[in-house]
Automatic annotation (TrEMBL):
Protein name according to UniProt: Exodeoxyribonuclease III
SUPFAM superfamilies: DNase I-like (SSF56219)
Entry cofactors: Mg(2+)
Pfam family name, one: Exo_endo_phos
EC number: 3.1.11.2
Keyword Cell cycle: no
Domain Endonuclease/exonuclease/phosphatase: 10-254
Coiled coil: none
Gene designation per UniProt: xthA_2
Family: Belongs to the DNA repair enzymes AP/ExoA family.
A molecular function GO annotation: double-stranded DNA 3'-5' DNA exonuclease activity
Keywords, in A-Z order: Hydrolase, Magnesium, Metal-binding
Source organism per UniProt: Novilysobacter luteus
Length: 263
DNA sequence: ATGGCTATATTCTATAGA
């Protein structure tokens, strides 16, 4: 197909790259993102389906782990260049949640922020520690004259407008004041929450859990975010959610979310 | 307050996700 005039960068929590590979390939074929950040691979490095992704026309870098977590960045007709594969600041953190690459001229940080449930507790403490490390690292990137994008599953519902019904989730780690304050602190460095900025009056959900027919009822959450730095923000032209992917049989509970940039 | 569903490894039961 003819190349899109804009550069599309997407984020997609696949909830298991092995069971979701057919959906991933169908999505890449139909939407042709230039860069795709993936989370929740739930696969080791050796289990990553490198050949199928290459055959689809994508280069890839990935950080795998047994059973849980795992992140990857795919680049269309190009190879991503690794910048870092861990978030600095906690030496014995072995969870595969961050991958930073140069891709199509943009520095992209692929993020899988800890869920943090149940809270309070050690998992919530880990989430807040991880968030602080992200904030510290992001500070070194935000003022770059080069374009930088933070993209991924942040496990943050930024405001009550970003969820179908906050009452049902008020004790959830994704809605806690500490979680929201950390996200606000990150944005205050100069990052822009693109989907909310372009769509101030629409919820723009990116996640619908598997329970109680939440997808069928459009009872979703907005937790997957794309945050350009000030150098990149002027190039943003559009953003959206590929909801059709969530509607497929045996879908991930997240939908791919993307932004288009001037090339 | 709980459970509803999906995926994984610890596999017929537990853990994690959000």
């Amino acid at each position: 197909m003819a190349r899109r005039k804009t550069l599309r960068i997407a984020t997609f929590n696949v909830n298991g790259i092995r069971p979701r590979l057919p959906h991933l390939l169908e999505w890449l074929e139909k939407e042709k993102p230039d860069v795709a950040c993936l989370q929740e691979l739930k696969a080791t490095d050796a289990q990553f389906p490198k050949e199928a992704i290459e055959a689809a026309g994508y280069g890839a870098l990935w950080v795998g782990q047994t059973s849980w977590n795992g992140v990857a960045v795919l680049t269309r007709d190009a190879e991503p260049v690794e910048s870092r594969r861990r978030l600095p600041g906690e030496r014995d953190d072995t969870q595969a949640r961050y991958l930073e690459v140069a891709a199509h001229g943009v520095m992209v940080g692929c993020i899988y922020l800890p869920n943090g449930n149940p809270q309070p507790g050690p998992k919530f403490d880990y989430k807040l520690r991880w968030f602080k490390r992200l904030i510290r690292h992001a500070k070194t990137l935000v003022d770059s004259e080069h374009p930088v994008l933070l993209a991924g599953d942040f496990n943050v519902v930024p405001t009550d407008f970003d969820i179908y019904n906050p009452k049902h989730w008020r004790r959830d780690a994704l809605l806690q004041p500490e979680t929201r304050e950390a996200y606000a602190t990150l944005l205050a460095q100069g990052w822009t929450d693109t989907l909310r900025e372009l769509y101030p009056d629409e919820p723009m959900f990116t996640f619908w859990d598997y329970f109680r027919q939440h997808w069928e009822r459009d009872a979703g959450l907005r937790i997957d975010h794309l945050l350009p730095n000030p150098a990149l923000w002027p190039r943003v032209r559009a953003a959206g959610v590929d909801r059709w992917v969530r509607g497929l049989e045996k879908a991930s509970d997240h939908a791919p979310t993307w932004i288009d940039l001037d090339r």
